Structure formats: C-alpha cells, structure tokens
Amino acid sequence: MYIVFLNYTRPLEEVEAVLDAHIAWLNKYFDSGVFISAGRKDPRTGGAIMVKDIDRDRLNAILDEDPFQAVADYEVTKVNITRTADGFTSLMGI
Q1: DSSP letter assigned to residue 68
Q2: Least crowded by CB within 10 Å, which of 7, 10, 65, 68?
Q3: What is the per-residue pLDDT across 78-89, written as a single tens digit (0 to 9) for each?
Q4: Residue 52 has what pLDDT?
Q5: For position 94, what pLDDT does the model report?
Q6: Is the four-CA dihedral 36, 91, 54, 2 of positive or negative sign?
Q7: Residues near 27 by beta carbon (within 8 Å), at least 6 away in sequence
Q8: 65 within 8 A of 59, measured Cβ to Cβ
Q9: What are the residue ranges of helices labelled H in 32-85?
Q10: Maximum Cα–Cα distance across the chain
Q11: Each residue of 43-94: pLDDT tens digit?
Q12: Its pTM surpasses 0.70
C-alpha cells in the first residue's frame, strides 16, 4: 500500500477555498475502493491518505486530479505491511 503525505504550501484560507472539491475527490476514490483512510495532520499543516497497492502510474494520475494540487505538495511512500496489531490484520497485503 501507499501512504501519501500532503503538506500545505499555501495559506489555510486558500486550502479552505478548495476543501469541498478535495473532499469530493476523496469520496470518489473511497467509493471506488482505492483509498483506505484519510485525515488531517495535527497541527493542521497538511494530511495523509492510505491507498491500496495499485499501479504507481495510476496513483500518480489519481493524485493529479486532486484540487489540493494547487495548495499542497505530496510525498508518496510505498509500504509493505508485514506485521500488525490485533484488529488491523486486514491491512496486510493491501
């Protein structure tokens, strides 16, 4: 799977201006089963998205659709989960 970290590069007012479109984009990929989880960083300097193990070119194309491209940088890390705590075994092999 992938963990995508978003780091805001623009003021929070500009982030807020595209937030509804970003949430619609998130919903599209949660509904299609590609995204596993998403949330804001604390303090609010960006966010993170967990993504199923898909072709990297497809992931790049999906990220290119995100309205937050105008207000954030992305750091994508591929993670191969080999061990989990109880209750999280479904993350193995994703």
Answers
A1: G
A2: 65
A3: 999 888 898 888
A4: 96
A5: 74
A6: positive
A7: none
A8: no
A9: 56-64
A10: 40
A11: 999 999 999 999 999 999 999 999 999 999 999 999 998 888 988 888 777 7
A12: yes
Burial tier of 16 (Cβ tally within 10 Å: 0-12, 13-18, 19+)? exposed
First to last CA, the chain: 6
User: Rounded mean pLDDT of the chain?
Assistant: 95
Q: Tell me the two tokens of residue 78.
A: 């591929």
Distance (Å, whole) CA 83 – CA 15:
35
Q: Where are the beta strands (DSSP E) in 35-86?
A: 35-40, 46-51, 72-78
**Amino acid identity at 59:** L
Gap between the Cα atoms of 1 and 8, Å rounded: 23
